[in-house]
Structures are given as structure tokens and as C-alpha cells.
Design brief:
The chain has 279 residues and is an all-alpha fold. Helices cover 76% and strands 0% of the residues. It has ten helices and no strands. The chain has helices spanning 2-21, 26-49, 65-75, 77-92, 99-105, 107-122, 134-165, 169-194, 197-224, 237-267. Helix 3 (65-75) runs parallel beside helix 6 (107-122).
Amino acid sequence: MTLGYNLLVIQMTEKEAVTAMRRITWMHIVSFALATAISYVLGVVSSLIFPVLGAPGVSALYVAAAIYVPLGIWMGLWGAFAGYVSCFFLGLYPSSYTPVQSFIWSWCDFLEALMPILFFKLLKIDPDFTLRRPKYAKVFVPFIVIGTLLLLIGIVVQVFWGAAYGEPFISFYKYAVYVGTALAIIGMVIGVFAGDPKTWLTYIFSGIILASVVSGVWGSMALTLYNLPPPLPSGLFIPVFIGWVTGDIIVLSTIGTALLVTLTPMIKRTPIYVEGWLA
């Protein structure tokens, strides 16, 4: 009894020591800067190619969300900061909002990444996207892979042909997005059975649904109702909100999920992985 207790104390002490040794390093800062730059570029491209009409900076497929939301799960608040900073500069250019308007608006992407961070940290859930049950894993992988590929193919078709030539390329793009998203959603449901249910349920609720809704509410309100002054008419709140939330759910269900499943095991073995909030 005494030996077992002593071993437990030693293990707890070692874990506390390892946690205490964690510090913010240059690798965290470089990863944050790189993710911010990528998010900004993707945000600009998304808002220009897939705009929600009448709302500069708002995209029907905001691909940048698939960068900073997973980054939040891997690197804590660094992901939320990457979302905020990239959105702030997106507000300045090409959206042409004032620095004050952009400062207020950009909290939408901070909150989007913050939702899964809060749930994973406060519930003390270790994000584990590994596939443990081969029976379900064989079915899971094709749904996620094909769903994400369909979305990406649809985006490419829209960028190179749909925008320039119209039909039938626009219809192909729409159906590719719808079918790809449906397949990815089915894949995530299978993921609950193929992997760790707590991880998947937490991610689906906080990292996709809640993140998209909270971001959409703040962002739409900051553009149409509450700002100094609101840059858009109040009557655009509903169409901006619907386009915003729908697009983010699509991107996080497909590209975001594929990145988490593929990269999480590798990133957790690197120094940039954050077990706390910043280190």
C-alpha cells in the first residue's frame, strides 16, 4: 500500500514538473505567425472568390477557419490569436473597414477558435483523433477523404471556370460542396464509433457547430448592428449570418476534420503542441 502510494506521488510530481517546465518558445511564435499569414491569405481569397453578397470580408466558404480552429485544438490560445489577427487585417484590406470597425469585428474569429479550446481544456479531454476500431475505420476514411476532395475539386472548378464561364461549372461546384459536406458529416458520425467518442462529440459540438454559430453571431452583429459605426445596413444581418455559419460549418466539417485526423498524432509529438493555454 505504501509503495503504491509513493509511486503515485512520484508520478504526479514528475507530471507537475514537466508541466512547469513548459514555456512559450520561438517555435510557438513562428507557428503562430505562419498560421496567421496563411489564414489571412486564405481569408482574402475566400472572401473575393466566394463572397456573401453585400458583405466585404464575409465568405460562403471561409477556408481560413480550417487553419486557426484546428490550430486552437493543437496550440491553445495561439489559434485564437491567429484567427483574430488574420481577420483584423482582412477587415482593413481588402474589406476597407476602419481600424476601429475591424478591431471590433475581428473578435468573431477569436471566438470561433476559442470555443473548442474552452471545451477541450475545461472538460480535460485530450484530443485523440486516432482510429481505434478497424471495423469502423475502414468506412470512416473514405467518407472524410472523398468528402474533402469533392469540396476542394469544387473550389478549383469554381475558381478557374465557374467564375469566368458560369454554367455548368457553377452547378458542379455547388453539388460538389453539398455532397462533399454530407459525406464528411457521415464520416464524423462514424468517427464517434471508430475513435474516442469524447473527442469527436466535443469537436462536433464546440469545434464545428458552436464555433460557427458564435462566430457568425458576433461577426454579423458587428457588421450590421453594433459597431462604430456598423459598416453594413442592419437589414443584411440575416443573409450575412446564414451565409457565414453555413460556410464555416462546411469548411470545418471537411477540411478542418481531415487536417485534425491526419496531423494531430504528429503534432502532439512536437514541441509546438500546447497542453495548457499557451504552453
